[in-house]
Amino acid sequence: MNIKKTLGLSTYIVFLLLPIYWLLVMSFKSNQEILGSLSFWPETFTFANYMTIFTDASWYMGYVNSIYYVSLNMVITLLVALPAAYAFSRFRFMGDKHLFFWLLTNRMSPPAVFLLPFFQLYSSVGLFDTHIGVALAHCLFNVPLAVWILEGFMSGVPKEIDETAYIDGYTFPRFFVKIFIPLIRSGIGVTAFFCFMFSWVELLLARTLTSVDAKPIAAVMTRTVSASGIDWGVLAAAGVLTILPGVLVIWFVRNHVAKGFALGRV
Amino acid sequence: MSKTKNNKAWFLVLPVFALVAFSAIIPLMTVVNYSLQDIFDASTRYFVGIEWYQMILNDSRLQDSLLRQFIFSGCVLLIEIPLGILVALMMPKAGKWSVVCLLVLSLPLLVPLNVVGTIWQIFGRADIGLFGWALNSLGIDYNYAANPMDAWFTVLLMDVWHWTSLIALLSFSGLRAIPDAYYQAASIDRASNWAIFRFIQLPKLKSVLLIGVLLRFMDSFMIYTEPFVLTGGGPGNSTTFLSQSLTKMAIGQFDIGPAGAFSIIYFLIILLVSWLFYTAMTHNDNK
Hints:
Chain A is mainly alpha-helical.
């Protein structure tokens, strides 16, 4: 049984890694070699593709822009979602169920629906082509999800802890920051992971709401397609570089993943 | 948990409400506005009522892409949910290998959508991609750029590659949260592996899977970037899903009236199906 399990799992992992490996190998090859023959290892190892990206500001600023608005989005989402999730997990108030459902419906609205109105709205209030603009737009689907996930974790914390803290003379903000937040650390880690994930991979809104100053890397990558064909090597190198920030994030939350991904709901 | 009634809690929710309302209500109202009018320019516009809605519902191209969308989302759920659970069951429960597996599984999740498209675009090509080359040397005539079935299969495979890990990670942490006592009781009863899965593991996974199913349904129903990068919706219209039909209509042809009506219908379908999933999976909880 155990051999079967290991075999099955290994097959799946190979299936996951092979396309990424292929991209990685390709990023170290020259275009002649890529188009010339099929090989599992670059014959002439070259960093030229990466040099193209690191020496051109319009290339590497794409990464800076993307990371900038994704971080902004994570911070904004967590700041507004934490108190709201606390309210939903602890109190009953007028219209709470309706509000919660309405929030979730925003997670269900396709970005394509909002493309044109977003463009008009954000242009008219001066948010077009700014990092904060993209971050706010991504809040549309990240905030509802964050509230939903955090609410699950907070409901897992016994209410007696709140009451004891108030008896001990804690004010609400102090209790929240000093006692409550450390208790749901895994939850916050996983929420941040989800926010990063959905904001980092999104392209449609980010591309529509930016032109030059806040252009995300995903939009910059379309430059590799030109009249003379596709520059495969640079495209592969750019792709590899978009995976790296994700790897860093996974590394930071690795200890929370196993526990946190149950989302406090088991 | 018993909750206290306290209307002051609204103050805690207010920031979220304001933020989401800004990005949701104003644009949504704009879309509704578009969908009811025929707009020529800023000053020339006519109220047309539900005409656009009738037109959209009778448009055969959109009916086709709706059908394609439902088949696609159905396939995605049918493959990814069982496969994700299976992978979670195969993973080592603790130790070094468990962490390695978690890291590797999370990797595809954080690849931007267009890069996923690029990866498979390269990987599937017969001349420079391993996958396309391997299939072709096995004698299978595989070419995603020319053959609609192959393009369709590639998009599906791409989605499975990208998102099965999400279900696997959710299920894995769900499984880890089951106390050992349950398994001990099962082994005293000499329960088979299948019985353990059916009566202990699956019920415990339900609430986590609900999130997984909903997220996967919503996102697969909104799929845009991957087929767009791979073949631009082609060959023909074989991988043109709803989001792409919509953007083509709204930005390509600038038919914002019909596009508005389309948006509202699209949104309502997702809402309805999500609600159905939600009710179907939770209707036993409150009995």
